[in-house]
Amino acid sequence: MSGMTVGQASINARDLSRHAASVLDRVEHGERLVVTRGGEPIAEIIPIARTQRLVARWVWDGLIPEPPPTGYATAAAVASAAQGLPSVPAGRTATDVLHDTREDER
C-alpha cells in the first residue's frame, strides 16, 4: 500500500460499514486509515488534496469541463512547451508570427 507506516491508524471493515460518516469526517480532516479484514490490511483511505477537491467542485458546478484522462497540464509542462515556441522578433506581434507560420504551412 502506498505510504503505509507501522502504527498507522486502522479500522476494520465491519466498523467502517457501521460508522462510515464519522470515518469519512476523520479522513476529510487529513487522517489516513488502513482498512483491515481479519486483521489483514486490505485498503487504505486517504484524503484528497484540496486542489483536487476544488477541481471536482468546479466540474460539479459546471464551471469547467471534466479534466482530460491525463489530467490538466502542470505549470512546468506549459513552461517547457513554451520553450519550443518560435521567438517573436522585435517590432512584430505574436499574431504576425502566427499568421506567417500559417502562410508557410499552406
In terms of topology, how is this protein built?
Elements: E1 10-12, H1 13-18, H2 20-28, E2 33-37, E3 40-45, H3 50-60, H4 75-83, H5 94-105
Parallel strand pairs: 1-2
Antiparallel strand pairs: 2-3
In brief:
This protein has five helices and three strands. The chain is an alpha+beta fold.
Helix content: 40-55%
Helix-strand pattern = EHHEEHHH
The oligomeric status of these chains comes to single chain
Number of helices in the DSSP assignment: 5
How large is the radius of gyration? 24 Å
Question: Which range does the strand content fall in?
Answer: 5-15%
Q: Major beta sheet, specifics?
A: 3 strands, mixed
Strand neighbour order, sheet with most strands: 1-2-3
Annotation, overall tally of beta strands = 3
> SS-based structural class?
alpha+beta
Shape: elongated
Mean pLDDT over the full residue set: 87
Q: Give start-end ranges of low-pLDDT stretches.
A: none
- Distance N to C terminus: 54 Å
What does this structure look like?
The structure is a single chain. Strand 2 and strand 3 (40-45) form a beta hairpin. Helices cover 44% and strands 13% of the residues. The model has no long low-confidence stretch (mean pLDDT 87). It contains 5 helices and 3 strands. It is α+β, with helices and mostly antiparallel strands. 0% of the residues are buried. The chain is elongated. Strands 1-2-3 form a 3-stranded mixed β-sheet.
